[in-house]
Amino acid sequence: MLPIAYFMAAANAHYYGTRDPLGAAGDFITAPEISQMFGELCGLWLADLWDRAGRPANPHYVEFGPGRGTLAVDALRAMRRAGLDPDVHLIETSPALRKAQADRLPDATWHDDLSSLPSEGPLLVIANEFFDALPVRQIVHGPQGWFERMVTVQHGLILPVLDGPPLNGLIPEHLHDSPVGSIIETSPASVAIAGALGERIAAQGGAALVVDYGYDHGPAIGDTLQAVRGHGYANPFDLPGDQDLTAHVDFATIGVAAHVRGVHVHGPVGQGAWLDAMGIALRAEALARATPDRRDEIMGAHHRLTHADEMGVLFRAMALIAPEWPQPVGFANSAATSS
Asked: Which residues pair with 317 in a beta bridge?
């Protein structure tokens, strides 16, 4: 038997390592692939912070899980127009995706994790739909207490079961008496990465924008493990390694993990609200005027990225900001956690 976290990690390592999963021919599409507007506004957000921080020398653009490199290309184009020309660092372990990124970003430097990033100069970081693919533990309230959710093979099928020692001591007090069958998810990998990123930004200066689908107040009760294949939902225990496994991001927990390492945390806020504050409506109109034959496509992308019934609310944006760096655009009405 394997804990869910090990199953998810192994399945996603094979899945991402052997294919380009994006686009109409793949399994899903992300915001940068929907419209250039998303990447451009991410780039302008970083450029604005860098400018108001006094244009510190030797800035580094860093992207976690950069897909095909689409977001980076759009963000860097916008940054350069604003006078910011950073070197490029991509945190990516998939050979297939590194190849796609190299076609678009031949001057980039690739890293397996953030430990090998430059140690001097501000880090300007984007993590779009990165944390959702990191493995989660699932702890389930059974009749005899809280236990780890595992996977096992029975009659050729992969099935979830409860096993291992009781884990009652890991459950927050206010959730301890939740109904039998309740599931709590935790992501030690997410906490470790958010903490390490917060420490690096606090020490070197810079900012990170984390965008993903998830919830603001955790830990919480709920089973969010899901699989996507062919742009539709699938059984997460079918075809391991041949479909994308994700879970909703606990923004409160990763925010605390980063904050305690020294950064200021802003948000999360809805992706739609953040894009609105960044001026996506004006950018959509400008693009539509420049290419009138694409107006319907551009306005459709604007709707998909910002509307509450699409990606505008489920997807959340959180900012991690170095001490002494300015207030980030798009988070004026959100409470900031300061050191």
From this structure: 211, 269
Structure tokens at 199: 């420490």
Is residue 307 within 8 Å of residue 60, measured between CB atoms? no
Query: Which stretch of DSSP H or E encloses residue 202?
Result: helix 188-204
User: Could you report the per-residue pLDDT of 114-172, keeping only the tens digit for each?
Assistant: 999 999 999 999 999 999 999 999 999 999 999 999 999 988 888 899 999 999 999 99
Closest CA to 269 of 336, 193, 208: 336
The CATH code of the domain at 2-134+187-337 is 3.40.50.12710
The token pair at 44 is 């302008």
pLDDT in tens, 54-86: 999 999 999 999 999 999 999 999 999 999 999
Distance CA 126, CA 114 (A): 13
The Cα 178–Cα 201 span in angstroms is: 38
In degrees and rounded to multiples of 5, residue 100 shows phi and psi of: -65, -40
Question: By C-alpha distance, which of 67, 60, 119 is closest to 92?
Answer: 67
Tens-place pLDDT, residues 14-43: 999 888 888 777 788 899 999 999 999 999
Tokens standing for residue 156: 């050729």
Phi, psi of 60, rounded to the nearest 5 degrees: -125, 125
Dihedral angle of Cα 282, 313, 225, 243, to the nearest 10 degrees? -20
Q: Determine the Cα–Cα distance for residues 155 and 325; give it in Å rounded to an integer.
A: 57
For CATH 3.40.50.12710, the residue range(s) in the chain are 2-134+187-337
Query: pTM, whole model, 2 decimals?
Result: 0.94
